Task: structure prediction
Amino acid sequence: MTAAIVQALLSHWRTHRLLLATLLIGIALATGLWSAVQAINAEARASYAQANAQLALGQFDELRDPAGDIPLSRYVDLRRAGWQVAAVLEGSYRVGGRNLRLMGVDMVAYPALPAVIDAEQSTNPPDPADILTAPGRLLVSPDLAPLLREQNALPPILTTTALPSDVILTDIGVAETLLNKPGAISRLVVLPDQPHVLPPLSEIAPELERVGPASQIDTAQLTDSFHLNLSAFGLLSFAVGLFIVHGTVGLAFAQRRGMIRTLRALGVSIRRLVWLILAELTLLALIGGALGLVLGFFLAGALLPDVAATLRGLYGAPVTGQMSLQPEWALAGLAMAVFGTLLASGHALWRLSQLPLLAGPGLQAWRSSGSRRGFTGIAGFALIVGGVVIYLSFGGLIAGFILLGGLLTGAALLLPLLLSFAISQLARTAQGPVAQWVWADMRAQLPGLSLALMALLLALAANIGVGTMVSSFRLTFVGWLDQRLTSELYVTATDNQQGREVSDWLRPQVDAILPIRSVELEHETGPLFLYGVVDDPVYRQNWPLIASASDVWDKTMAGNAVLINEQLARRANLWPGDDLQFSPARALKIAGVYSDYGNPTGQAIVSMQQLNLISPGVETRRFGIRMDPGRAAEMAQTLRTRFDLPRQAVVQQAAMKAQSLAIFEKTFVVTSALNVLTLGVAGFAILTSLLTLWTQRLPQIAPVWALGLNRAQLSRLELLRSVLLAALTACLALPLGLVLAWVLLTVINVQAFGWRLPMYVFPWDWIVLLLLTLLAAMIAAALPALRMLRLPPADLLKVFANER
Amino acid sequence: MLLSIDKVQKSYPGGRPVLRDVSLTLDHGQTLALTGESGSGKSTLLHLAAALDSFDGGEITLDGTPLSPLDDAGRAVLRRRSVSLVFQQFNLIPSLTVDQNLSFHARLAGNYDPTWGSHLAERLGLSDLLGSFPETLSGGQQQRVAIGRAMAARPKLLLADEPTGNLDETASANVLDLMLSLVVDTGAALLLVTHSQEIAARLDRRVHLAGGHIQ
Result:
């Protein structure tokens, strides 16, 4: 009996192949976009974990020289003085067209490296002496091993699962040779179990900075907001894909009502039918989900390099940029496909289970009525209000995302009501019979198209919202860079003495020398970097203050006040007029708050005299140099040569800005790509709706054709209808997108990153987006319009046939 | 001569002939009943006369215009200006009100006369239903709207395909009376497809179609 029912149910798909394809594509798109984002997140997080495991980063302090590499002599001095430190040399190494990160560690000083232990615990453990003696060994991940084994000039390869697939770990001696940097050291890891009595670092190596685990950036935590943003986008794409699934499943159920009535009349229970249809949907979800996983894998592979570059540039977070297939990711994707399909089909399935045996058939019953439209509208309004109430009650990032979700879903549910109202108003202005018919027909078509239009609304709002946020951020960021990077050159000397020499030599040749001194302090909100600056018009004129008391600079330079960055202000809720406590005995009035994009830590600025009082003896090794910009490049080269400074110790303002902007642009490549993809999915949703509604169109079009409109005219009107609906939806998406942008800028950014951005509007971008939308709508309607154009009169005449 | 059908041939896709050398004529103001069994080709002949479909051989001339050279757009113009149609299934435009349906064809043809439109609405008993949508009307009311839509354009030729086929006896008589009286008043010619000998008897002429031939 079951076999016969299954055969009957499945026969529907044989005769409705387009619908089947649409359903599978809908599931595949939803799963694909979601899985791609999840794969990117999972890959990035795996990279952080592996990177942390390499040297147990985040657990030990490190010693670094802000001016560049650490001389070998310093390492020797520290070891002789009893400091248990291990030297690390890092660099980029190109093999077989790939740029890899080569990391050399002094394995005599630090033999307990997790990667080495992992290799030693393998079935074929290496002899520890082999790693330390010539030619040494290269430890790499199993993915990377084949590539390196092809290179004849390299030392033998050992594999370990504790390394990311773009890292080569070896002894520092081997690294020196491969990187051609004899005697160079990038940083020193301060190992545990130090002697009880140690000479202070300031005596042995005053130029080195000790960076504690608290100051080292926890990449996983720091990048959480970035991943949360990506996940939100993935979820939006998933929701847009589910609109397609909801629409096609609903139509398929409506088309099968007659068959289901017949099966029930023949004695099949509704319970058995519902279970079999559930099984059928699960099977379709698994097929669509598998297609989606393939799509997601390739999409993630295409997007991951940009995400990796963003995370490296913005947060210094190590991500390999290469995808590997994780079984958990595939299983989660399939589970999501099944969950999404059943969620999207739940309503149709419930209605089917409630269908009386003798209920009238027909597609009209599937379409929503006016009262249902009203109910959906009320639900939409309630969701918007609910989101606002939750955010106002609880606050925080999660509540911010609930607010966003409520706004978007609520607006989508309100769309049919708003469109219906807009169309009825426009219909009143229609003069000719054709115009009257077009508007009336458009209103009649709304229920069938509303799901696709909701998807379009969400995609457009996301485009406008995220686009406005990114463009506002860009505009603010560029202006902020101009304000902050006012000096033409930034110099870091190796020590105080050299700092004085550089300063003396430069003074007669430049407009101004602005010393920059800083010290790291502890604050209740985390590390606080306190900077001392001299009084110079450049600060008074340019510093990007977002809130200030009167005479802000006079008070600060007189040593009576402090300026703090926005992150610290928001984190500690400190604003002009409040006190910033440096120690139990010392506090200063806050005179102003300045924007400080991209910096995760708290920062404050005082006068140079005040800095010397708070933390005496801070060296002056860094300077900002004001000079003729045309001479900056030449001066930078001269400084490097004359004072033997490494390249990174003399930085030009232009290069710094270019690098900052490059990182910025990379940051939003992924969101832009997801924006375009979501718009594409929405366009596809319109196409599938138009195609699936096609059979219902003929009875509406045929009378108009019979009364004297030819097929070419009707075809053009089909295109026009789609374009007008898309244009109306775009008009409604604009305010929603701007609200979304406002929430992103004033709620999500503040909660996620600690800074609030001013909102700018970009009407030209809206025009471009509107044109893109109209183009997408035209492309989506092109196939149905072409069908209309080529429709044989005999098919139209069937509508009038008495036996129909 | 308003309508001339001369040795027209038409086959279904696959080659099965529906009409074989069918000829007939219809003068201005004349009424003609086309009878025949189901599948005899009467609806097909009506569709060809209405310029809704093309034929394989012969010629149809409507108000002096031969149909065979016309393309899709040309046939549409002819339908708009010279003929009106009434179908068994009413085929009103569901998204338009009764008022908009009534005036739709006449406005397409560019000859809508609001006074005549009001007169028609009153005569057809639709004055109180002008703001309603077709789905809220009974079958008889819908067919009266369809007749009103057809006559509002003051056509030279009215083509009706089983116009009372979906109506009960009372509604059927009512609709037919209204249609015939309007045809007489406007001087239009009528070609009406019907199974009913009783209805056919009320028209000026009767032609019987069987096996694709006129008998």
Summary: Chain B has one domain: 3-214. Residues 3-214 of chain B form a domain with the Rossmann fold fold (CATH 3.40.50.300). The first strand of chain B starts at residue 3 and ends at 11.
